[in-house]
Amino acid sequence: MNRKTTKAKSTTKQATESTGQQAAPEPTTGSGQEQAANHQPKPPKATPNKQSDVPVDDPFEKVVLSGKGKKLSPKTQNHVFFEVAINKGDDRLYLRLSRNEGGGLHSKRWLLVDDVIVVLDQQKPKVPFKSVALRDLYGGGSANNAGFLAAALRSKDLGLIQASDKSPFLHVLNPDYEAAKAKLLALSGK
Hints:
With 190 residues, the chain is α+β, with helices and mostly antiparallel strands. It contains five helices and seven strands. The longest helix has 17 residues, at 3-19. The chain is globular and about 45 Å long. The protein starts with a helix and ends in a 5-residue tail after the last helix. Residues 1-57 are annotated as: Disordered.
């Protein structure tokens, strides 16, 4: 054995004793037989935990409406997808952003529809407002949340707001806001 091979084995032994884990040997320049003798097999790859077979009790299992709204930017044709569901714990309507096309992080947290309506009811008809008006519904998180929610609220399925004539990033209440709101709230079956 040459000096480099002896040094590599010594270093590997020291690393094993100090950490309890076997370190990879340093590369050697010896013969092919010496290199084969120093080669350590790779540890098996970790496998992800399997999900339990126990059913998860989902209070939002009754989805009453699924839809999509075009993202606000005129440069894209991508959509934001949403769901409206009845929470079986309190029999109230909730809304969430379920996914989006083209990227962008967002919260999938369920929002109480009544809270969304309170924010929209505070807006004056025909007066443009920014997506920021919806930000407090999430209590922080991704900057995309408010804009993506606005896209969902603009969708044909919900139709609560629409783009302002002044900017594609500003919103106004739909002229049929009260009818759209009543249609949404009627999904609760009450």
